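explain this:

___
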Amino acid sequence: MDTSLVAPVTVAALLIIRTALVEMRHPGSARRQWCFAARRRPMTAGATVAVLLCVGGWRAAGIASVAWAVLAGALVAHVVHLSTGQEADKGESRSGGRH
């Protein structure tokens, strides 16, 4: 493995391990924490950031830019979900949606 890939892979692994440990203590928390992956607005924002970082960083970092871009895209999607999650959850529960 390329040494420049170690850091983003380690961060991603730590986030997944943290999710698993919290899930063992509080069942159902992983579903709430990762529900941004099923929402359109957060995933669009995350994908946009990932693509822009990939395109911009490819020449400088090569394949490592893809790993960093995917990690940054996931974090952006999570933040966007946190900022819009309450309104989206209320709208979906009123219309008989996911909850």
